Amino acid sequence: MRSLSLALLAAVAGSSLANPVMAETAKTASAMIEPALAAAIADPLREKDRARDVYRKPAETLSFFQVSPTMKVGEYAPGGGWYSRLLGLYLGPKGKLVGLYFDPTSSAFGDKMKAGIREGATKYPAEVAEWSGQPAERFSAFTLDVVPDSEKGTFDRILVMRMMHNLLRWNLAAHEIKQMRELLKPDGMIGIEQHRAKPDAPYSFTDGSKGYLREADVIKFMEINGFTFVGKSEANANPKDPANWPNGVWTLPPQLGGNPDEATKAKLQAIGESDRMTLLFRKRP
């Protein structure tokens, strides 16, 4: 099954992107930032997270994804919580934030990981409440092995932040995206931020194992799985990233993998975090 999912992306590698007119009409990174979002980004509770704003561009990214403070928003695979802490501040007062966790029944995970996924979903509401100072009932979470009927068709947005490569290499992409599609309202949208490979990068480098994917492949995958490409933003672009690291994206900050010497570390820090695509998709009827 894993080879089938990855072969699908390889087969469409040469396909053209969606209508360029549509892409050009998408909001740009210079769009006006909604006041509640600006306030959340500036909140003192984000003091430790703010250093990465220069790389993650949360104001431009969430504005491009057209997230508003009254929406119900799912964050897929919340991980370390960097975006959850911001989204908790932004959505907590008037909206709803839901953590969407991997299907823990997948054979991609061992028993320890499966237990950790379920535990993460259980802890999520209380953790975001503590981070944001908002009531825990403003937050919820569940795993994607079974989508509750009451949740289907209720989400305005779902955010998939730097996670598509894992979905592909773990053979979860088709199942998880299908589950997310079930959760979205008829006009709901998925925003994807993902490490971006060069357009001519070989399949061996873009199968998910290096963290980088080709933009055209991600777009076509989403189109095949029931979404219309709305547009793209270059808010998270980094032209200094050659996107060809033998050990993958983890060579760059913040991981700085491979134990680099001080001179190499300085060069990598000067490059910064990875070049990233920022894509928006609407649920197709």
UniProtKB/TrEMBL annotation:
Entry keyword set = Methyltransferase, Signal, Transferase
InterPro entries according to UniProt: S-AdoMet-dep_MeTrfase_Alr7345, SAM-dependent_MTases_sf
Keyword Methyltransferase in annotation: yes
Name any Gene Ontology BP term. Answer: methylation
Gene Ontology MF: a single term:
methyltransferase activity
Q: Does the keyword Transmembrane apply?
A: no
Q: Secretion signal: which residues?
A: 1-23
The protein's name in its UniProt record: Putative methyltransferase
From what organism does this protein derive?
Novosphingobium subterraneum
